[in-house]
C-alpha cells in the first residue's frame, strides 16, 4: 500500500488544508503523476498527484474536511482495476457535505436549491474558528470577491450575532482594525502575546513555520504591515518610525497593551522603532536579520522583486532569500505572486524607494536599539545575501547574538525550531 499525503501546499507553510475534490473514486485505476485530489489553503488550491500507479483503495479525507499537513488522504495498492475488490459500501464517495445546522441563537441559512448543496469555500482557519464558536458557515456572507469565507468574516458575524447571555461566545478581536491594518490572531494562550512583524514583500503568513512550531499554547498576533498582505496598499510611510506609529495604533485599537515583539528584516527595523516609542509595553525584543543596523542591503534584490510580474522573473529573486533554494518551488512563487498583486507590488516599490533609496538603508536604528531596555536577541543566518550578517555587531552590548549556519535571510522558515526556542528563551528572560 502507498499513502497519498499532503506535505505542503502551493509552496505555503500551513498547519492544515481543506479537501476540495476527489478526481478518482475507490476502485479506480490511477497512474503515477495523475491528479487524484485537490486541497486548498488560505491562499490557493493545490493539486495532489498519485505517488505511484495502482488502485485507489480508500479515501480517508472527505470533501470539506480539514486535515493537518502530513495526514494520509487515501491509499493506493498495486494492481489493476479488474483485480480490485469492490469498494466498501460505507466508503463515502466525493460528494459535498451538508453544512451542520446552525445554533438556535444564530440565523439559519436560506434553503438550498433542489439541485443540491453548493460547496462552501472557507479558509482552514475560518472553518476551525467557526466550528469552535458553533457557527454555521452557510450563514456567513463572505467579504472577499472570490466568495471565500475568511476569519474576518467569522469575526464580523460573531460581533453582529452574539450568543445569548446564558451561553456567551468569547469573540476574538477583529482581524482588520479601525486604521485598516490587518491583524491575525493565532493560538489559544492567554498570556502576553507574541506580536510578529514580517519582512519586506511578505505578510503575516510568512510566519507560519515558526508559529506552527511555537504551538497553539502561545498567543500570537501576525501583523500585515502597511503596503503588505491585507493591509492598505497606500502606506504613505517614509521611515521605520512612520510604520511603527501605524502598528502602534493598530495594536491599541485591538486592545493589545503589552507583547513580546518579534521582527524580521523590514519588520525588525519597525520593531526597534515601536519598542522605543513606549506606546506598547514590549516585554522582550527578538530581531531576525533586522534592517536598520547598517547601510548595506541588496538593492538588486529589491529592484528585481518589485519589478517581477511573472513566476519566471520572480523565482530567481526569491531564491536569494534562502540557503536551501529547494524551498522556492513553483507553488511558492505562484502563491507569492497571487498574494501581492499589482497594487501591493507598486506600493512596495514606492516604500522601497523611501526606506532603501539607491540600494542603501536610510534608517539608522542602532542608537534607538541601545535605548530599548528589555531582553534582546538577534538571530541571523550566516548565508544571508540580503542584509550582511556583520550588521549584528552594531546592536550594542545588551543584545545576545545567534548566528545560524546553512541559513539565509529567512531563519524563521529555514530553521523554525531553533528560532522558536530562542524566542521563548528571550521571553522567559522578561519574567
From TrEMBL:
Upper taxonomic lineage: Bacteria, Pseudomonadati, Pseudomonadota, Alphaproteobacteria, Hyphomicrobiales
InterPro entries recorded for this chain?
2-oxoA_DH_lipoyl-BS, AB_hydrolase_1, AB_hydrolase_fold, AB_hydrolase_sf, Biotin_lipoyl, E3-bd_dom_sf, PSBD, Single_hybrid_motif
| UniProt-listed PANTHER family | AB HYDROLASE SUPERFAMILY PROTEIN YCLE (PTHR43798:SF31), MONOACYLGLYCEROL LIPASE (PTHR43798)
Q: Which UniProt keywords apply?
A: Acyltransferase, Hydrolase, Lipoyl, Pyruvate, Transferase
Q: What is its EC number?
A: 2.3.1.12
Please give the cofactor(s) recorded in the UniProt entry for this protein: (R)-lipoate
Keyword Transferase among UniProt keywords: yes
SUPFAM superfamilies attached here?
alpha/beta-Hydrolases, Peripheral subunit-binding domain of 2-oxo acid dehydrogenase complex, Single hybrid motif
Name the record gives this protein: Pyruvate dehydrogenase E2 component (Dihydrolipoamide acetyltransferase)
* Broadest EC class assigned to this enzyme: transferase
Q: Name one GO molecular function term.
A: dihydrolipoyllysine-residue acetyltransferase activity
Q: Does the keyword field hold Transferase? A: yes
Q: Which family does it belong to?
A: Belongs to the 2-oxoacid dehydrogenase family.
**NCBIfam families, alphabetized:** PRK14875.1 (NF011457)
Q: Which residues form the Peripheral subunit-binding (PSBD) domain?
A: 121-158
Domain Lipoyl-binding intervals: 1-77
Amino acid at each position: 500500500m502507498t499513502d497519498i499525503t499532503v506535505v505542503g501546499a502551493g509552496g505555503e507553510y500551513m498547519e492544515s488544508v481543506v479537501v476540495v475534490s476527489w478526481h478518482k473514486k475507490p476502485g479506480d485505476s490511477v497512474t503515477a503523476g495523475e491528479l487524484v485530489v485537490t486541497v486548498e489553503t488560505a491562499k490557493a488550491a493545490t493539486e495532489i498527484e498519485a505517488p505511484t500507479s495502482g488502485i485507489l483503495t480508500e479515501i480517508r479525507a472527505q470533501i470539506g474536511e480539514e486535515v493537518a499537513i502530513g495526514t494520509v488522504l487515501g491509499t493506493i495498492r498495486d494492481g489493476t482495476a479488474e483485480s480490485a475488490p469492490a469498494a466498501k459500501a460505507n466508503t463515502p464517495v466525493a460528494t459535498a457535505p451538508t453544512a451542520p445546522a446552525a445554533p438556535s441563537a444564530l440565523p439559519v441559512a436560506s434553503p438550498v436549491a433542489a439541485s443540491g448543496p453548493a460547496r462552501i469555500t472557507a479558509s482552514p482557519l475560518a472553518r476551525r474558528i467557526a466550528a469552535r464558536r458553533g457557527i454555521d458557515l452557510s450563514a456567513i456572507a463572505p467579504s472577499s470577491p472570490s466568495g471565500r469565507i475568511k476569519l474576518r468574516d467569522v469575526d464580523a458575524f460573531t460581533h453582529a450575532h452574539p450568543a445569548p447571555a446564558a451561553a456567551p461566545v468569547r469573540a476574538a478581536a477583529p482581524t482588520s482594525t479601525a486604521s485598516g491594518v490587518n491583524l491575525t490572531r493565532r493560538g489559544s494562550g492567554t498570556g502576553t502575546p507574541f506580536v510578529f512583524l514580517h519582512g519586506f514583500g511578505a505578510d503575516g503568513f510568512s510566519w507560519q513555520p515558526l508559529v506552527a512550531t511555537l504551538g497553539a499554547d502561545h498567543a500570537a498576533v501576525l501583523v500585515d504591515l502597511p503596503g503588505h498582505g491585507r493591509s492598505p496598499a497606500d502606506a504613505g510611510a517614509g521611515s521605520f518610525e512612520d510604520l511603527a506609529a501605524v502598528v502602534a495604533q493598530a495594536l491599541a485599537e485591538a486592545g493589545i497593551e503589552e507583547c513580546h515583539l518579534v521582527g524580521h528584516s523590514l519588520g525588525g527595523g519597525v520593531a526597534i522603532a515601536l519598542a522605543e516609542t513606549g506606546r506598547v509595553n514590549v516585554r522582550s525584543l527578538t530581531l531576525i536579520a533586522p534592517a536598520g543596523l547598517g547601510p548595506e542591503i541588496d538593492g538588486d534584490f529589491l529592484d528585481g522583486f518589485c519589478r517581477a510580474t511573472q513566476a519566471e522573473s520572480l523565482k530567481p529573486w526569491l531564491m536569494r532569500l534562502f540557503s536551501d533554494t529547494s524551498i522556492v518551488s513553483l507553488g511558492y512563487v505562484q502563491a507569492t505572486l497571487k498574494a501581492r498583486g499589482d497594487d501591493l507590488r507598486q506600493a512596495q516599490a514606492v516604500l522601497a524607494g523611501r526606506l532603501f533609496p539607491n540600494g542603501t538603508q536610510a534608517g539608522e536604528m542602532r542608537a534607538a536599539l541601545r535605548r530599548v531596555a528589555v531582553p534582546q536577541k538577534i538571530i541571523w543566518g550566516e548565508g544571508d545575501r540580503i542584509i550582511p550578517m556583520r550588521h549584528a555587531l552594531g546592536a550594542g552590548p545588551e543584545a545576545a547574538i545567534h548566528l545560524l549556519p546553512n541559513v539565509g535571510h529567512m531563519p524563521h522558515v529555514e530553521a523554525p525550531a531553533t528560532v522558536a526556542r530562542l524566542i521563548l528563551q528571550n521571553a522567559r528572560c522578561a519574567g
